[in-house]
Design a protein that fits this description.
This protein is an all-alpha fold. The chain is 64% helix and 0% strand.
């Protein structure tokens, strides 16, 4: 399954990008088999949390334009898409943490609650990265 990463131009596309990161993590965890089943479950919960936040809390700012977002740098090194290695999963955890920290700063100006969620997701990615290490 190919995961689509949108260009980040609004809060709505910022959330779509975040959800795509989680979808890719779920896919890569699945490729690792049973050792990564716990990680996949965590990413599924995170995806559900992002979907809930988007549905319930972003209505008023979903189309608010964002400027200066370089989302592509958070995907650097994650291609080719046919690489399902644990190394790619580890890199994804690190890139996701960076994305969530950058997004928390952006969201902090408009939505403090979204910023806190992104900060929490970044911290979780940093911890999840250490859980991927034994799979390498």
């Amino acid at each position: 399954m190919a995961v689509h990463f949108p260009e980040v131009t609004t809060f709505g596309t910022l959330m779509s990008f975040a959800m795509a990161l989680e979808e890719l993590a779920i896919e890569l965890c699945g490729a690792q088999g049973d050792p990564a089943a716990g990680l996949a479950k965590k990413h599924k919960k995170r995806l559900a949390r992002l979907e809930e936040v988007r549905r319930e809390r972003l209505n008023e700012v979903i189309l608010e334009p964002l400027h200066g977002v370089d989302a592509a740098r958070h995907l650097d090194g994650l291609h080719p898409s046919n690489d399902e290695s644990a190394a790619r999963l580890a890199l994804l955890e690190r890139r996701s943490a960076d994305f969530y920290l950058d997004s928390a700063r952006l969201a902090g100006n408009m939505l403090a609650e979204i910023a806190r969620i992104f900060e929490r997701l970044a911290k979780e990615n940093q911890k999840l990265s250490s859980e991927v290490e034994p799979l390498l």
